[in-house]
Amino acid sequence: MSETFPAPSGAGDFIADAVIEDNASGRYSGRVQTRFPPEPNGYLHIGHAKAITADFGIAERFGGVCLLRFDDTNPDAEEAEYVESILEDLSWLGYKPAQVVYASDYFEALWQWASSLIERGLAYVDEQTAETVSQQRGGFGKAGIESPCRDRPAAESLDLFRRMRAGEFPDGSKTLRAKIDMQSDNMQLRDPVMYRIRRARHHRTGDAWCVYPTYDWAHGQSDALEGVTHSMCTLEFESHRPLYDWYLEQLELPREKPRQLEFARLELTHTVTSKRRLLELVRQEIVEGWDDPRLPTLRGLRRRGYPAAAIRAFCAHIGINKTNSRHALEELESFVRAELNRSAQRRMAVLRPLALIIDNWPVDNDGTGLVEWFEVGNNPENPADGTRRVPFSGRLWIEADDFAEVPPPKFFRLSPGREVRLRGAYLVTATSVVKDETGAIVEVHALYDPATRGGDAPDGRKVKSTMHWVSAAHAVEAKAALYGRLFTAETPGERTGDPMDDLNLDSRELLANCQVEPSLAALAPGEVVQCERLGYFACDPRTPLLFHRTVGLRDEWANIRKKGA
Ligand code: ATP
Ligand code: MG
After folding, report:
1. Annotated catalytic residue: which of 39, 146, 372, 443?
2. What is the pLDDT of residue 9?
3. Distance from the first to the final alpha carbon of the chain
4. Distance in angstroms (rounded) separating the CA atoms of residues 36 and 17
5. Nearest ligand to the CA atom of 273
6. For the residues of 319-387, what is the DSSP string, one character each?
7. What CATH number did the domain enclosing 369 receive?
8. Quick one: 83 and 198 in the same domain?
9. pLDDT tens digit string along 322-371?
10. pLDDT attached to residue 565
11. Mean of the pLDDT values across residues 295-306?
12. 462 catalytic, yes or no?
């Protein structure tokens, strides 16, 4: 297991309490085994991170093991590509499963177990259409209707079941159903389907099977075959627990019966975490693929620059609970900012460049402008990150909105006659502007005070503003992508039922002529830096000199919390 493992959520964690109770009673002889069971039908997202933290965290905390099980019982939607991505994303998040297993590994064992249920009169082959079966199920307070096939002799069901597997019947024409209770108050127990006929190529078993087990029939049995003790899932499976238990109680298990425990899903404001919704965004090309930095997929967050450690810390912080709630995206961002503040090196970059010419800047021996190199610390939070050399000269780029020819009230940045600090370099005073034929300012002229090297005046005079800058002759041209919320509403779809109605159509701004300090051209793919005053930026993994803004510098979560308090 990874060394950077998050501390489990600790007190108040009801799953940990359940394990402690089981250990005390000797239920599993002190053994703890969990599993993270994704269906390989999409990419992992931030919600899965919570489940992963819970599954691996509980195992780790109690000296147990956690397996990765691909829940691959539905070949229609599943693909090997998703299996690969899940393995990669899990490893990126910092978790190493004790073993990688597949529900499809148990297709034969499940088949044998199902046959034994038929032999004991606990399951039967139904030949009615799916529609009829669903109508007969009834509803709460509405009686269920027993299938005419329910009481057919076991031998007849067994024969049909074998022929289903042999491919004698068309898709959807027959199902195997458990014979439980058509009048149960719990709909899950009204003779649930265990197998359906489906001719679809499975990513691992190919065409070996044309009958596939349902989730409910496969899940608990897979847990039991592997020796899982605590099987965690999300709250919507609470009503499935009696079925989970029923199946296991009918079978002769190799080890103690596993126990299902349910916890709340993680949802975040301004985004969606259902795989179906995410697929829609990708298919309709609203985003550019599964790793679009606006998506809450782990690969989207990673490309955006979110450190895995920040995601783990967030999940540990919110803990494992039983009430569904939507967490503010800003809360997750505050963990990202805290982690990056510690780990990200500082750099200077200008997003919307405006030329600043220092008219009294000295000329070098060769007649060109002097270049002065400043030794600048890479990270004030971490001296071990060392220093770098940053060139300064008489022609600089500054941020266009750091200058105003006629400053509005409370504008303390550069304007004619005003002195400001160029971060770590000198104090400069703007003197005049040059405009093009449209009246747009193309150059600001200024004078610098040579006595202020390093950014402080010997006479102690103060300036109200410190601005970042990049030497024009040394600057590298780059692109920056700035992101807004993907959905305008906190709860997408709350108004109309369709999250797409709340899409923010303006969720990305691409700036194509940024000017950045030369060291930014040498960033490793995926590396994240703090650009002074602008926020954290991640270097794109594929496109050189494309930077994604991970998050701004202001802690919006602090404000939200204050308002809430
Ligand atoms: P979706 O509804 O998006 O398809 P799912 O629950 O079907 O999601 P799985 O791949 O089956 O996705 O999930 C694997 C594990 O992750 C399950 O234990 C599931 O309960 C858990 N999980 C999925 N989404 C969330 C979430 N938003 N919060 C917490 N756990 C989640
Ligand atoms: Mg699922």
Report:
1. 39
2. 45
3. 39
4. 20
5. 1
6. ---SS-EEE-HHHHHHHHHHHHHHHPEEE-EESSEEEEEETTPPBPTTSSBP-EEEEEES-TT-GGG-E
7. 2.40.240.10
8. yes
9. 988 899 999 999 999 999 999 999 999 999 999 999 999 998 877 788 99
10. 56
11. 98
12. no
Q: Which of 177, 179, 275, 294 is catalytic?
A: 275
Residue to substitute in 45, 222, 234 for testing ligand 1 pocket (most ligand atoms within 8 angstroms of CB): 234
Q: Active-site residue 39, yes or no?
A: yes
**Can you read off the two tokens belonging to residue 178?**
């458990």
Give 140's pLDDT tier (boundaries 50, 70, 90): confident
pLDDT in tens, 9-59: 444 589 999 999 999 999 999 999 999 999 999 999 999 999 999 999 999
pLDDT for res 12: 53
CA 346, 350, 356, 362 torsion: positive or negative? positive
Specify if 21 maps to a domain: no
Q: Find residue 234's DSSP bridge partners.
A: 263
pLDDT band at 2; cut points 50, 70, 90: very low
Per the domain annotation, does 9 fall within a domain? no
Name the helix (H) or strand (E) containing 466.
strand 466-467
**SS percent in the chain: helix, strand, coil, step 5:** 30, 25, 45
Q: Average pLDDT, stretch 129-142?
A: 92
pLDDT category at 533 given cuts 50, 70, 90 is: very high
Query: What are the start-end ranges of the E strands in 214-329?
Result: 230-234, 259-263, 266-268, 325-327
Q: Which of 468, 488, 511 is the last residue of a domain?
A: 468
Residue nearest to atom 16 of ligand 1 (CA): 48
Question: Can you tell me the distance from the alpha carbon of 559 to that of 489, in angstroms, rounded to the nearest whole number?
Answer: 19
Q: Which residues line ligand 1 (CB under 6 A)?
A: 37-39, 47-48, 50-51, 71, 233-234, 265-266, 273-275
Q: Are residues 306 and 437 located together in one domain of the fold?
A: no
SS3 161: helix
Domain with 549, as residue range(s), is: 268-346+478-564
d(CA 491, ligand 2 centre) in Å? 21
Mean pLDDT of the chain: 95
Q: What does the DSSP 8-state code read for residue 132?
A: H
Length of the chain: 565
Rounded CA gap, 194 and 212, in Å? 8
What is the residue type of 85? S
The pLDDT, as a whole number, for residue 561 is 76
Is residue 190 among the annotated active site residues? no
**Pocket of ligand 1, candidates 9, 39, 48, 102: which has the most ligand atoms within 8 Å of its Cβ, to mutate?**
48
DSSP state of 520: G
pLDDT at res. 141: 85
pLDDT band at 8 (very low <50, low <70, confident <90, very high): very low
The pLDDT tens digits for 271-293 are 999 999 999 999 999 999 999 99
Residues with CB under 5 A from ligand 2 (ion): 39
Sheet holding 535-539, edge to edge: 345-347, 528-531, 535-539, 546-551, 476-483, 508-516, 349-350
Residues 380, 291 share a domain? no
- The pTM is what? 0.94
Whether residue 54 lies inside any domain: the answer is yes
